[in-house]
Amino acid sequence: MTAVLHPVTRRTLATSILIGACALLVLGVHPILLGAMVEEGRIAEAQVGNLVTIEMIAIVLGSLAGIWLLRKLGARPVICGAGLVLAAMNLLMTDLSGMAIIASCRAVAGLSEGVLVASTLVAISRVVRVERASAIFLAVQTLMQAVAAASLPFIALGSSRTGTTLLTLAIASAVAAVAALALPRELQPAPSDDEQGAITPASLAALAGAGLFLGGIVSVWSYFGLWLLGNGYPPTFEGTAISLCLVAQVAGALTAARFGERLPNRQTIIGCALAAAASAILFLFVGHEPWAILAVSVIFGFFWLFTLPFFAGWLIEIDPSRRAVLYITAFQLGGAALLPSLAAIAVGSFSVDAAMVFSGGVFLILAALAYLNKYAISARQPG
After folding, report:
1. DSSP states along 238-271
2. Is there a single domain that holds both residue 251 and residue 342?
3. Looking at the domain assignment, is residue 148 inside a domain?
4. Within a domain: residue 190?
5. How many domains does the chain have?
6. 323 SS3 class
7. What pTM does this model have?
8. pLDDT category, 382, cuts 50, 70, 90?
9. Which domain holds residue 37?
10. With DSSP H G I counted as helix, E B as strand and the rest as coil, what are the percentages for the chain, rounded to 5?
11. Domain check: are 328 and 240 in the same one?
12. pLDDT by residue (tens digit) across 143-164?
Protein backbone atom coordinates (compact mmCIF):
# COMPACT_ATOMS: atom_id res chain seq x y z
CA MET A 1 0.00 0.00 0.00
CA THR A 2 2.82 2.41 0.85
CA ALA A 3 5.49 3.09 -1.73
CA VAL A 4 9.15 2.71 -0.85
CA LEU A 5 10.62 6.08 0.13
CA HIS A 6 14.05 7.01 -1.20
CA PRO A 7 15.01 10.07 0.88
CA VAL A 8 16.83 13.00 -0.70
CA THR A 9 20.25 13.97 0.62
CA ARG A 10 20.74 16.74 3.14
CA ARG A 11 22.41 18.83 0.46
CA THR A 12 19.42 18.49 -1.84
CA LEU A 13 17.01 19.33 0.96
CA ALA A 14 19.03 22.37 2.04
CA THR A 15 19.34 23.60 -1.56
CA SER A 16 15.63 23.17 -2.24
CA ILE A 17 14.73 25.01 0.98
CA LEU A 18 16.95 27.93 -0.08
CA ILE A 19 15.30 27.98 -3.52
CA GLY A 20 11.80 27.96 -2.01
CA ALA A 21 12.67 30.67 0.49
CA CYS A 22 14.01 32.89 -2.31
CA ALA A 23 10.86 32.27 -4.35
CA LEU A 24 8.53 33.20 -1.48
CA LEU A 25 10.51 36.25 -0.35
CA VAL A 26 7.87 38.32 -2.16
CA LEU A 27 5.20 37.27 0.36
CA GLY A 28 7.13 38.89 3.20
CA VAL A 29 7.64 42.18 1.39
CA HIS A 30 4.22 42.37 -0.28
CA PRO A 31 3.03 45.15 2.08
CA ILE A 32 6.13 47.21 1.29
CA LEU A 33 6.01 46.59 -2.46
CA LEU A 34 2.28 47.15 -2.87
CA GLY A 35 2.25 50.18 -0.59
CA ALA A 36 5.15 51.71 -2.52
CA MET A 37 3.45 51.14 -5.88
CA VAL A 38 0.31 52.89 -4.64
CA GLU A 39 2.33 55.71 -3.10
CA GLU A 40 4.23 56.23 -6.37
CA GLY A 41 1.02 56.20 -8.41
CA ARG A 42 1.74 52.97 -10.27
CA ILE A 43 -1.52 51.27 -9.22
CA ALA A 44 -4.68 52.36 -7.40
CA GLU A 45 -5.30 51.53 -3.76
CA ALA A 46 -8.36 49.44 -4.59
CA GLN A 47 -6.31 47.28 -6.99
CA VAL A 48 -3.96 45.92 -4.33
CA GLY A 49 -6.13 42.95 -3.37
CA ASN A 50 -6.65 41.99 -7.02
CA LEU A 51 -2.92 42.07 -7.64
CA VAL A 52 -2.31 39.75 -4.68
CA THR A 53 -5.03 37.39 -5.95
CA ILE A 54 -3.47 37.21 -9.41
CA GLU A 55 -0.04 36.38 -8.03
CA MET A 56 -1.33 33.80 -5.53
CA ILE A 57 -3.37 31.98 -8.19
CA ALA A 58 -0.30 31.98 -10.44
CA ILE A 59 1.80 30.46 -7.63
CA VAL A 60 -0.76 27.65 -7.22
CA LEU A 61 -0.78 26.94 -10.96
CA GLY A 62 2.99 27.22 -11.16
CA SER A 63 3.51 24.72 -8.34
CA LEU A 64 1.25 22.19 -10.09
CA ALA A 65 3.00 22.74 -13.40
CA GLY A 66 6.37 22.60 -11.68
CA ILE A 67 5.81 19.06 -10.40
CA TRP A 68 4.94 17.95 -13.93
CA LEU A 69 7.96 19.77 -15.40
CA LEU A 70 10.29 18.23 -12.82
CA ARG A 71 9.14 14.79 -13.95
CA LYS A 72 9.54 15.55 -17.65
CA LEU A 73 12.60 17.80 -17.91
CA GLY A 74 14.61 17.33 -14.73
CA ALA A 75 15.36 19.66 -11.83
CA ARG A 76 18.28 21.76 -13.02
CA PRO A 77 16.91 23.22 -16.28
CA VAL A 78 13.42 23.74 -14.86
CA ILE A 79 14.47 25.47 -11.64
CA CYS A 80 17.30 27.46 -13.21
CA GLY A 81 15.00 28.62 -15.99
CA ALA A 82 12.22 29.60 -13.58
CA GLY A 83 14.69 31.57 -11.45
CA LEU A 84 15.95 33.51 -14.48
CA VAL A 85 12.41 34.26 -15.69
CA LEU A 86 11.46 35.48 -12.22
CA ALA A 87 14.53 37.73 -12.04
CA ALA A 88 13.67 39.17 -15.46
CA MET A 89 10.07 39.91 -14.46
CA ASN A 90 11.16 41.72 -11.29
CA LEU A 91 13.70 43.82 -13.20
CA LEU A 92 11.19 44.58 -15.97
CA MET A 93 8.70 45.96 -13.45
CA THR A 94 11.03 48.58 -11.97
CA ASP A 95 9.88 51.29 -14.43
CA LEU A 96 6.35 50.08 -15.21
CA SER A 97 3.03 51.69 -14.26
CA GLY A 98 -0.57 50.62 -14.83
CA MET A 99 -2.58 47.72 -13.48
CA ALA A 100 -2.73 45.71 -16.73
CA ILE A 101 1.01 45.50 -17.38
CA ILE A 102 1.94 45.12 -13.71
CA ALA A 103 -0.66 42.37 -13.22
CA SER A 104 0.71 40.55 -16.29
CA CYS A 105 4.25 40.71 -14.91
CA ARG A 106 3.16 39.50 -11.47
CA ALA A 107 1.23 36.64 -13.07
CA VAL A 108 4.35 35.44 -14.89
CA ALA A 109 6.37 36.01 -11.72
CA GLY A 110 3.86 33.97 -9.71
CA LEU A 111 4.07 31.08 -12.16
CA SER A 112 7.86 31.12 -11.83
CA GLU A 113 7.64 31.32 -8.05
CA GLY A 114 5.32 28.33 -8.03
CA VAL A 115 7.73 26.27 -10.14
CA LEU A 116 10.58 27.11 -7.75
CA VAL A 117 8.49 26.17 -4.72
CA ALA A 118 7.56 22.87 -6.39
CA SER A 119 11.17 21.74 -6.02
CA THR A 120 11.00 22.47 -2.29
CA LEU A 121 7.71 20.63 -1.81
CA VAL A 122 8.98 17.61 -3.73
CA ALA A 123 12.21 17.48 -1.71
CA ILE A 124 10.35 17.77 1.60
CA SER A 125 8.00 14.97 0.55
CA ARG A 126 11.03 12.74 0.07
CA VAL A 127 12.34 12.94 3.66
CA VAL A 128 11.42 10.70 6.57
CA ARG A 129 10.51 13.49 9.01
CA VAL A 130 8.30 15.68 6.85
CA GLU A 131 7.09 17.82 9.78
CA ARG A 132 10.63 18.74 10.80
CA ALA A 133 11.68 19.59 7.24
CA SER A 134 8.54 21.70 6.79
CA ALA A 135 9.26 23.58 10.01
CA ILE A 136 12.81 24.33 8.87
CA PHE A 137 11.51 25.61 5.53
CA LEU A 138 8.94 27.78 7.29
CA ALA A 139 11.55 29.22 9.65
CA VAL A 140 14.12 29.93 6.91
CA GLN A 141 11.68 31.64 4.56
CA THR A 142 10.18 33.75 7.34
CA LEU A 143 13.57 34.83 8.69
CA MET A 144 14.64 35.87 5.19
CA GLN A 145 11.41 37.84 4.81
CA ALA A 146 11.97 39.53 8.19
CA VAL A 147 15.50 40.62 7.27
CA ALA A 148 14.31 41.96 3.93
CA ALA A 149 11.35 43.81 5.45
CA ALA A 150 13.55 45.41 8.11
CA SER A 151 16.30 46.40 5.65
CA LEU A 152 14.37 47.67 2.63
CA PRO A 153 13.08 50.95 4.14
CA PHE A 154 16.65 51.98 4.96
CA ILE A 155 18.15 50.75 1.68
CA ALA A 156 15.48 52.61 -0.28
CA LEU A 157 16.00 56.01 1.39
CA GLY A 158 16.41 58.60 -1.36
CA SER A 159 15.36 56.24 -4.16
CA SER A 160 12.25 54.48 -5.44
CA ARG A 161 11.00 52.00 -2.85
CA THR A 162 9.30 50.01 -5.60
CA GLY A 163 12.50 49.77 -7.62
CA THR A 164 14.62 48.84 -4.60
CA THR A 165 12.18 46.13 -3.52
CA LEU A 166 11.98 44.66 -7.02
CA LEU A 167 15.78 44.70 -7.34
CA THR A 168 16.03 42.78 -4.06
CA LEU A 169 13.54 40.21 -5.36
CA ALA A 170 15.50 39.93 -8.62
CA ILE A 171 18.71 39.20 -6.71
CA ALA A 172 16.94 36.50 -4.68
CA SER A 173 15.61 35.01 -7.92
CA ALA A 174 19.12 34.90 -9.37
CA VAL A 175 20.36 33.15 -6.21
CA ALA A 176 17.66 30.51 -6.71
CA ALA A 177 18.70 30.04 -10.34
CA VAL A 178 22.35 29.52 -9.37
CA ALA A 179 21.41 27.22 -6.47
CA ALA A 180 19.54 25.01 -8.94
CA LEU A 181 22.90 23.86 -10.27
CA ALA A 182 23.44 22.04 -6.95
CA LEU A 183 20.25 20.00 -7.34
CA PRO A 184 20.40 16.42 -8.62
CA ARG A 185 19.47 15.84 -12.25
CA GLU A 186 16.21 14.19 -11.19
CA LEU A 187 13.96 15.39 -8.37
CA GLN A 188 10.50 13.82 -8.48
CA PRO A 189 7.71 13.07 -6.02
CA ALA A 190 7.82 9.66 -4.38
CA PRO A 191 5.66 7.11 -6.25
CA SER A 192 2.34 6.32 -4.61
CA ASP A 193 -0.72 4.20 -5.20
CA ASP A 194 -3.72 5.59 -7.02
CA GLU A 195 -6.25 5.20 -4.24
CA GLN A 196 -8.50 8.20 -3.75
CA GLY A 197 -10.40 8.80 -0.56
CA ALA A 198 -13.78 10.47 -0.64
CA ILE A 199 -13.92 13.99 0.77
CA THR A 200 -16.59 14.01 3.49
CA PRO A 201 -18.52 17.10 4.55
CA ALA A 202 -16.48 17.21 7.77
CA SER A 203 -13.14 17.10 5.97
CA LEU A 204 -14.37 19.59 3.36
CA ALA A 205 -15.33 21.97 6.16
CA ALA A 206 -11.86 21.62 7.69
CA LEU A 207 -10.23 22.26 4.31
CA ALA A 208 -12.44 25.31 3.81
CA GLY A 209 -11.41 26.47 7.28
CA ALA A 210 -7.75 26.27 6.28
CA GLY A 211 -8.52 28.43 3.25
CA LEU A 212 -10.50 30.93 5.33
CA PHE A 213 -7.69 31.31 7.85
CA LEU A 214 -4.89 31.99 5.39
CA GLY A 215 -7.19 34.09 3.21
CA GLY A 216 -8.09 36.27 6.19
CA ILE A 217 -4.43 36.59 7.13
CA VAL A 218 -3.37 37.61 3.61
CA SER A 219 -6.24 40.11 3.39
CA VAL A 220 -4.76 41.96 6.37
CA TRP A 221 -1.18 41.50 5.19
CA SER A 222 -1.87 42.88 1.71
CA TYR A 223 -3.15 46.18 3.06
CA PHE A 224 -1.03 46.46 6.20
CA GLY A 225 1.62 48.66 4.57
CA LEU A 226 -0.98 50.97 3.07
CA TRP A 227 -2.82 51.15 6.38
CA LEU A 228 0.35 52.23 8.19
CA LEU A 229 1.17 54.85 5.55
CA GLY A 230 -2.41 56.11 5.69
CA ASN A 231 -2.06 56.62 9.43
CA GLY A 232 1.00 58.80 8.88
CA TYR A 233 3.81 56.39 9.70
CA PRO A 234 7.07 56.56 7.71
CA PRO A 235 8.46 53.64 5.68
CA THR A 236 11.04 52.93 8.41
CA PHE A 237 8.29 52.28 10.94
CA GLU A 238 6.48 50.15 8.37
CA GLY A 239 9.59 48.00 7.96
CA THR A 240 9.96 47.63 11.74
CA ALA A 241 6.34 46.56 12.21
CA ILE A 242 6.48 44.06 9.36
CA SER A 243 9.81 42.57 10.46
CA LEU A 244 8.56 42.17 14.05
CA CYS A 245 5.46 40.45 12.70
CA LEU A 246 7.63 38.07 10.70
CA VAL A 247 9.88 37.27 13.67
CA ALA A 248 6.74 36.58 15.73
CA GLN A 249 5.64 34.16 13.02
CA VAL A 250 8.82 32.16 13.50
CA ALA A 251 8.21 32.13 17.26
CA GLY A 252 4.66 30.93 16.65
CA ALA A 253 5.79 28.11 14.38
CA LEU A 254 8.47 26.96 16.83
CA THR A 255 5.98 27.09 19.72
CA ALA A 256 3.51 24.96 17.79
CA ALA A 257 6.27 22.48 16.94
CA ARG A 258 7.27 22.25 20.61
CA PHE A 259 3.86 22.12 22.30
CA GLY A 260 1.42 21.37 19.48
CA GLU A 261 0.94 17.70 20.33
CA ARG A 262 -0.36 18.62 23.78
CA LEU A 263 -3.20 20.79 22.45
CA PRO A 264 -6.52 19.69 20.88
CA ASN A 265 -6.52 20.66 17.22
CA ARG A 266 -10.05 21.90 16.59
CA GLN A 267 -10.38 23.74 19.89
CA THR A 268 -7.01 25.40 19.37
CA ILE A 269 -8.08 26.57 15.93
CA ILE A 270 -11.23 28.10 17.42
CA GLY A 271 -9.21 29.97 20.03
CA CYS A 272 -6.63 31.14 17.50
CA ALA A 273 -9.33 32.28 15.06
CA LEU A 274 -10.90 34.41 17.80
CA ALA A 275 -7.48 35.82 18.72
CA ALA A 276 -6.77 36.63 15.06
CA ALA A 277 -10.16 38.36 14.74
CA ALA A 278 -9.45 40.41 17.86
CA SER A 279 -6.01 41.37 16.53
CA ALA A 280 -7.37 42.49 13.15
CA ILE A 281 -10.03 44.67 14.75
CA LEU A 282 -7.66 45.94 17.44
CA PHE A 283 -5.47 47.53 14.76
CA LEU A 284 -8.29 50.02 14.14
CA PHE A 285 -8.29 51.16 17.77
CA VAL A 286 -4.52 51.64 18.14
CA GLY A 287 -3.79 53.35 14.84
CA HIS A 288 -2.23 56.40 16.49
CA GLU A 289 -0.18 54.54 19.11
CA PRO A 290 3.10 53.31 17.58
CA TRP A 291 4.04 50.91 20.37
CA ALA A 292 0.55 49.47 20.46
CA ILE A 293 0.69 48.84 16.71
CA LEU A 294 3.99 46.99 17.13
CA ALA A 295 2.52 44.92 19.96
CA VAL A 296 -0.57 43.94 17.94
CA SER A 297 1.69 43.17 14.96
CA VAL A 298 3.62 40.71 17.13
CA ILE A 299 0.41 39.07 18.38
CA PHE A 300 -1.01 38.83 14.86
CA GLY A 301 2.21 37.32 13.50
CA PHE A 302 2.48 34.80 16.33
CA PHE A 303 -0.99 33.38 15.77
CA TRP A 304 -0.43 33.32 12.01
CA LEU A 305 2.12 30.49 12.00
CA PHE A 306 1.18 29.03 15.38
CA THR A 307 -2.26 28.14 14.00
CA LEU A 308 -1.39 26.63 10.60
CA PRO A 309 0.00 23.24 11.80
CA PHE A 310 -3.22 22.47 13.67
CA PHE A 311 -5.24 22.31 10.44
CA ALA A 312 -3.30 19.23 9.35
CA GLY A 313 -3.91 17.61 12.74
CA TRP A 314 -7.60 18.48 12.53
CA LEU A 315 -7.88 16.86 9.11
CA ILE A 316 -6.10 13.72 10.27
CA GLU A 317 -8.56 13.45 13.19
CA ILE A 318 -11.43 13.58 10.70
CA ASP A 319 -9.78 11.34 8.11
CA PRO A 320 -7.19 8.99 9.68
CA SER A 321 -6.32 7.68 6.21
CA ARG A 322 -4.62 11.08 5.67
CA ARG A 323 -6.03 11.41 2.17
CA ALA A 324 -7.87 14.68 2.83
CA VAL A 325 -4.74 16.35 4.21
CA LEU A 326 -3.15 16.09 0.76
CA TYR A 327 -5.47 18.89 -0.40
CA ILE A 328 -4.68 21.33 2.41
CA THR A 329 -2.10 23.40 0.53
CA ALA A 330 -4.41 23.89 -2.45
CA PHE A 331 -7.23 25.12 -0.20
CA GLN A 332 -4.92 27.41 1.77
CA LEU A 333 -3.47 29.05 -1.33
CA GLY A 334 -6.94 29.19 -2.87
CA GLY A 335 -8.19 31.14 0.12
CA ALA A 336 -5.12 33.37 0.05
CA ALA A 337 -5.80 34.06 -3.63
CA LEU A 338 -9.55 34.70 -3.52
CA LEU A 339 -10.31 36.46 -0.25
CA PRO A 340 -8.03 39.48 -0.87
CA SER A 341 -10.16 40.23 -3.95
CA LEU A 342 -13.24 40.41 -1.74
CA ALA A 343 -11.27 42.61 0.66
CA ALA A 344 -10.41 44.84 -2.31
CA ILE A 345 -14.13 45.39 -2.97
CA ALA A 346 -14.60 46.46 0.65
CA VAL A 347 -11.58 48.77 0.49
CA GLY A 348 -12.79 50.29 -2.76
CA SER A 349 -16.22 50.96 -1.26
CA PHE A 350 -15.00 52.32 2.07
CA SER A 351 -11.33 52.65 3.08
CA VAL A 352 -8.27 50.56 3.93
CA ASP A 353 -9.76 50.05 7.41
CA ALA A 354 -12.37 47.84 5.74
CA ALA A 355 -9.69 45.19 5.09
CA MET A 356 -9.24 44.76 8.85
CA VAL A 357 -12.99 44.51 9.44
CA PHE A 358 -13.37 42.06 6.56
CA SER A 359 -10.61 39.81 7.90
CA GLY A 360 -12.05 39.93 11.41
CA GLY A 361 -15.34 38.67 10.00
CA VAL A 362 -13.58 35.87 8.09
CA PHE A 363 -11.88 34.67 11.29
CA LEU A 364 -15.20 34.66 13.14
CA ILE A 365 -16.75 32.55 10.37
CA LEU A 366 -13.84 30.12 10.72
CA ALA A 367 -14.38 29.89 14.48
CA ALA A 368 -18.07 29.12 13.95
CA LEU A 369 -17.25 26.56 11.25
CA ALA A 370 -14.75 24.77 13.49
CA TYR A 371 -17.22 24.75 16.38
CA LEU A 372 -20.05 23.32 14.29
CA ASN A 373 -17.70 20.77 12.73
CA LYS A 374 -17.61 18.81 15.99
CA TYR A 375 -21.16 17.63 15.33
CA ALA A 376 -20.18 16.26 11.92
CA ILE A 377 -17.29 14.37 13.54
CA SER A 378 -19.52 13.02 16.33
CA ALA A 379 -22.09 11.85 13.81
CA ARG A 380 -19.46 9.70 12.09
CA GLN A 381 -18.31 8.03 15.31
CA PRO A 382 -20.08 4.80 16.28
CA GLY A 383 -22.13 4.68 19.42
Report:
1. HHHHHHHHHHHHHHHHHHHHHHGGGS-HHHHHHH
2. yes
3. yes
4. no
5. 2
6. coil
7. 0.74
8. very low
9. 10-182
10. 85, 0, 15
11. yes
12. 888 888 878 877 765 667 888 8
